[in-house]
């Protein structure tokens, strides 16, 4: 069942820069989709349009079943430094006016879900980069959104932390029913995470090709070192090269 469809979507900013030029893409409910492309190709713009944070200059974004609740994880954790991990995660519930006991219970549950049980009272300055990103993910999921948008959330992290968070994100996606759209410029990350990859051309961006990743879940470290994974990475890399040259 289609959750959202983009038809010939373009975006031109007030500066005259055209970020997207006729992008079309359908996303199915419950899918894990990665959007892969070079820096500056409009991936983040595409995500912000889906989130409703910006409007397309032309084209259509359709929600056949109605727009769902949406969670957004940005490139930086964007945590409030003056409050605890629990307070940061509870913020969306606070803004909704939910009772303190209810929002703290749900925030604690969300933190436990991303592996941060016991860190509820920690402040952002006391957390590592990976832990801050976990808090950001917990905050995005605390409202139980049906769609989670992630804009290169692990790009600034070291490789070991990034791999761990990739695995934990997939575990979370399998436990919790949501659709994931994950923006990345990493071929390896997109193949490891996704059921399908949308490959974007250079700016003005559009979806140049799509690649299905048929490997079953759960995807473990063994998959990440397998011949199947290497072959899929080569395919994705070739499609990305073609898109960039187009």
Polypeptide structure, described:
The chain has 246 residues and is α/β, with parallel strands linked by helices. It contains 8 helices and 9 strands. A 6-stranded mixed beta sheet has the order 5-6-7-3-8-9, sandwiched between helices. Strands 2-1-4 form a 3-stranded antiparallel beta sheet, covered by helices on one side. Strand 8 (196-200) and strand 9 form a beta hairpin. Helix 2 packs parallel to helix 4 (129-141), helix 3 (100-113) packs across helix 4 (129-141) and helix 6 packs across helix 8 (227-245). The longest helix is centred in the C-terminal third of the chain and has 19 residues, at 227-245. The protein is globular. The two termini are 31 Å apart.
Which features does this protein show?
246 residues; alpha/beta; Rossmann fold; 2 domains; six-stranded mixed β-sheet; three-stranded antiparallel β-sheet; 8 helices; 9 strands; 38% helix; globular
Summarize the structure.
With 246 residues, the protein is of the alpha/beta class. It has helices at residues 43-51, 85-95, 100-113, 129-141, 159-175, 187-193, 221-224, 227-245, and strands at residues 2-12, 18-28, 32-36, 58-62, 70-73, 147-151, 179-184, 196-200, 207-212. It has 2 domains: 2-68 and 147-245, Rossmann fold (3-Layer(aba) Sandwich); 80-145.
